[in-house]
Amino acid sequence: MSVTRELLNRAGQMPGEERRRSQRVIIRVPVTLVVTEGDKQVKINAHTVAVNIHGAMVVSPRSVDADISVDLVNERTNENIASRVTRTPRESSEGFLIPLEFINASTNFWQITFPPSNWKAPEN
Questions:
Q1: What is the pLDDT of residues 73-85, one digit of tens each?
Q2: Which structural domain, as residue segments, surrounds residue 18?
Q3: What span, in angstroms and rounded, lies between the C-alpha atoms of 96 and 103?
């Protein structure tokens, strides 16, 4: 099993694929999380493990509390999008797995073409 699949399994993201609103793509994209702590903005360098049109699972060197608003910056395009942490991040060997949901879905934020909704990955 790949490290990415192992991380997603531990984060509780693999079961229930049929319940997803959109297809997930396993891809590593450098991102910056911008969070407000007190009266200042803090930038955290991170990367994605998986993305979809509704958000991403990111790996970060530090945790961010559930329900916190996050401005997510795609470092490849320098675009940002408002999002929120959907649940308490889980610690892994690579860092903290942080599930992010966009406030408004975006088909173009990741600048990739997503597979059709009825597509199934081949089983290994």
A1: 999 999 999 999 9
A2: 3-102
A3: 21
